[in-house]
# Entry
Amino acid sequence: MGAELALLTDSLVRATPLIIAGLAVALAFRGGVFNIGAEGQLLAGAIAATAVSLAGAPVFGRAVVLIALIAASLAGALWAGIAAELRRRFHVLEIISTIMLNFIAIYFVSFLVRGPLQEPTHIYPQTESLDTVARLPVLLPETRLHFGFVLAVGLAVFLSWIFRRTAMGFRIRATGASPLVARMAGRIDVSRTSFLVFLFSGALAGIAGGIEVTGVTFALYENLSPGYGYTAIAVALIAGLNPLGVIASGIFFGVLETGAIALQREFGVPSSIASVIEAVFILAALTLTAVRGRQLLGRASAS
Amino acid sequence: MSAFETFLEGAVRTATPLGFAALGETVAERSGVINIGLEGAIIAGAFGGFVAAGSGSVWLGFAGSMVAGILVAALFAIFAIRIRADQIITGTAISLLCLGLTATLYQQMYGATGAALSIPTMSAMELPLLSSIPLFGRALFAQPAIAYLLYIMIPLVWWWMYRTYEGLALRATGEDPRAAVAAGIPARKFQTMSVLFGGAMGGIAGGVLVIAQAGSFAEGISAGRGFIAIAIVVLGRWHPLGVAAAALIFGAASALQYFFQALGWPVPYQLFLALPYVLTLFGLAGIAGRAVAPAGLGRWPDQV
# Structure
């Protein structure tokens, strides 16, 4: 078992939440919804998955993983739903509301792991560890690579199919490209479409959190996510909001962040350099698309 | 001081950096540019202020904050105004860049342990007579000197925006850049200058956190204040006086925790930490339909 293999599989483990949250952002941006809140929705999913796994493992056995992931997607959709409803009913800018919800989610996790969900000895600020039946299966023995990576790739293929082959996908793309044209020429219920896009985007981010808990951390604690939801924005943009491209850019950022952590361990280079590199990539992508004379994404008005 | 006075003092203290950042963002948004990179300007200002104040002078520290904020805003302007890249995405990238860069530089320059390095801090300056007004005198007029700069800036920005030709031109640009250009207004120049002003104010906001409050730098010390400031601009309906009031209300909401602590209520502290963000959401929903954003905000017509 070489160190190279460990580095590679660790990168794929890191890439898994980035790909799924990246899909969440890509779906939202394609549909004209500026969901900057993947981070909070991911945490909502992690909370739900943890709570369901801890309570349900003795009852449901192996099936509890599936139930936990469904709960995670619902929690993510619910958390996004707050911002979606505020946007639909009160025209609140989702950029601001989702960022506010990110902070609220972080403090909610902090409250839970020091309060109702704290492990029984009440020493560490985290929940009990998940029972082994509640964990996602490992793909390669003796590595941390888990089944969640397969799910991530599957979700990307599925979303790509939705975009290209279904009427729903067309409605989403039309709404994002031009809400006015979508309404006038396409008879599309723009308000309903973007509301649903928002919910499904949140559900995807929630699944990312659920998979992180059941595949990697096996417990809920503060700083469970090192900003996956924010990196996901870079992942989605570098991929040109293309779901299949998200797989590649997610792996790329997974390698980048895993490499940065290794660099810090070996040479003391601060791992925060990774977010600098991510930002530079976003700015480079913006420049390239601007030079080519087109926008990176369709802008939807708040209506 | 009574619990109520402590509460008021805390409200003004919390509102000061938010007021600076939101006032600058108000000017930028009235020119039609929404700068989500404000968070980046604040953290850069905090770091720049920390480095510059290490020289021993608090005012040099604030100058460093301002320069750092302006540099970040200039980077934003190059992308969002010069090549007209999407403002939201540019701003998000700039915030990410600054949060990462300041953390990296801090660790490189001062070591990964982040030992609490302290710098000279600006102590409270009591204004004679004014600070002896009962109830709110000390809260408003026994603050660090930089707060008084904000008190002066608020009416000044209002006057400039509503009583001068340049202010009118700025607002015209924000409503309809194409019409502004047709009327002979150098719209891009106005947008660039207001973004740079917003950066300077954001930088000072970061400086307040480090130089007038914490006394040292910490990674992520901006803690989302840039985003809160953007929400405050909406709550204050893009008007300098409204924004100042919104910042104060927000500060009061945050300072409630001192009040409750003084009363000894057993409420989880995370609730207080989350409260400002919850209130912002309620506030944004509450002004629904009554807040009118500049019509050209975030957009630039393809042909100008």
Summary: The mean pLDDT of chain B is 88. Chain B touches chain A through 44 residues (CB under 8 Å).
